[in-house]
C-alpha cells in the first residue's frame, strides 16, 4: 500500500525564514507537478518555475503551459487567494485571461485543484 505523505501547512508564514521558504517552494513545486498530471499534461507540455523573491515575501511557484497559468504564493490578500490561475495563449503570455483564485490548502489536494481549474477555465 502506498504511503501517504502528511499535508504541508502552506499557510505557515515563511517570510524571513530561508529554510521554511525552501520547503514551501519544494512542496509547492511537487504539488503543481501533481496538478499538471491531473490536468493531463506531460512534463514537456509545461514549464515549472520558482522565483524565491526577497527575504520579506514568499516568492512564487508557477506552472505555465500553452493554455494555463497557475501560480502559488503566500499572497498579501490571504491564504484563500494564494493560488492564482487563468487561461493563457502560450508560454510567453504572462497576462492571459481573467484571474481566478483558490486557497493554498488545495495544494494538498491536487486532483481537486485540477478539477476547479478545468471547471473555471474550461480547459
Could you walk me through the main structural features you see in this protein, from its secondary elements to its overall organization?
With 123 residues, the protein is an alpha+beta fold. The chain has one domain (18-121). Helices cover 27% and strands 20% of the residues. The protein is built from two helices and five strands, in the order H-E-E-E-E-E-H. The protein has helices at residues 18-38, 110-121, and strands at 46-51, 60-65, 68-72, 83-87, 100-102. A five-stranded antiparallel beta sheet has the order 1-2-3-4-5, covered by helices on one side. A hairpin with an 8-residue loop joins strand 1 (46-51) and strand 2 (60-65). Helix 1 (18-38) packs across helix 2 (110-121). The longest helix has 21 residues, at 18-38. The model has no long low-confidence stretch (mean pLDDT 95).
Which percent band covers the strand fraction? 15-25%
How many domains, as an integer?
A: 1
For the report, how would you describe the main beta sheet? 5 strands, antiparallel
Low-confidence stretches: none
Which radius of gyration do the C-alpha atoms yield?
14 Å
Overview in brief:
The chain is an alpha+beta fold and 123 residues long. It contains two helices and five strands.
Fold topology:
Layout: H1 18-38, E1 46-51, E2 60-65, E3 68-72, E4 83-87, E5 100-102, H2 110-121
Antiparallel strand pairs: 1-2, 2-3, 3-4, 4-5
Features:
123 residues; alpha+beta; five-stranded antiparallel β-sheet; 5 strands; 20% strand; globular
Amino acid at each position: 500500500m502506498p504511503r501517504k505523505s502528511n499535508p504541508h501547512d502552506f499557510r505557515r508564514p515563511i517570510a524571513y525564514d530561508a529554510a521554511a521558504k525552501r520547503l514551501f517552494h519544494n512542496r509547492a513545486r511537487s504539488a503543481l507537478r501533481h496538478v499538471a498530471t491531473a490536468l493531463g499534461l506531460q512534463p514537456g507540455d509545461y514549464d515549472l518555475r520558482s522565483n524565491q523573491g526577497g527575504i520579506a515575501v514568499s516568492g512564487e511557484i508557477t506552472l505555465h503551459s500553452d493554455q494555463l497559468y497557475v501560480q502559488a504564493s503566500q499572497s498579501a490578500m490571504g491564504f484563500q487567494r494564494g493560488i492564482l490561475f487563468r487561461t493563457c495563449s502560450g508560454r510567453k503570455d504572462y497576462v492571459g485571461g481573467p484571474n481566478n483564485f483558490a486557497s493554498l490548502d488545495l495544494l494538498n489536494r491536487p486532483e481537486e485543484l485540477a478539477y476547479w481549474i478545468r471547471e473555471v477555465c474550461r480547459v
